[in-house]
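Re: beginner question about structure tokens

> Can someone show what the tokenized structure looks like for a real chain? I only ever see the sequence side.

Sure, here's an example I had lying around. Input first:
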Amino acid sequence: MISILREFTPRSEIDLVEVPAPQKLAKYSFAFTADLSNGLLGDEEDELASGRFVVLHEPGGQDTWEGEYRCVTFMRATVDSDMQADPLLPEVGWNWLLDSLQDNGAQYSAPSGTVTRVSSASFGKLSSRHDESEVEIRASWSPILTKPEELIPHVQAWCNFISEVAGLPPVAEGVASLTAARRRG
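And the corresponding structure tokens:
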């Protein structure tokens, strides 16, 4: 399973880095972080979103998981103040995730999560900063797998999800982005 995850290549604006996974939640685990930029270079590059994706595997499963595997994710993205103020943002954010899983053919059960709006205003010596708005989405679900390769649609769905929340246009299947793919790990 881990080699399949290490071979996954996201769209070029996403930089995936393997990180230590939590050791006490399941017998086996794998994790990576994602930083999503606008794809430009140098001073023109801006970070649009970041997150973490963890796959847990407990042979025999856990009752609350409804399976032997669990995907646990977190993502944070900058949003404009109008979007942050929209009372439907939590429902829309949650539906972006579920729609992305469905659109990528990722079979799952037992989804759960939270959507949090964060708004910051700066004062005093920091008053020259612009007000900032973010959305944070924490989610987990149990992928339904018959073979390890079926985990890839879940990772692809999550990458598409954070790209959508960050406001990047979708990349059509079979079309490569013009910026060079970046991956460290």
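Each token stands for a local structural state, so reading them left to right follows the chain. The chain is about 20% helix and 35% strand.
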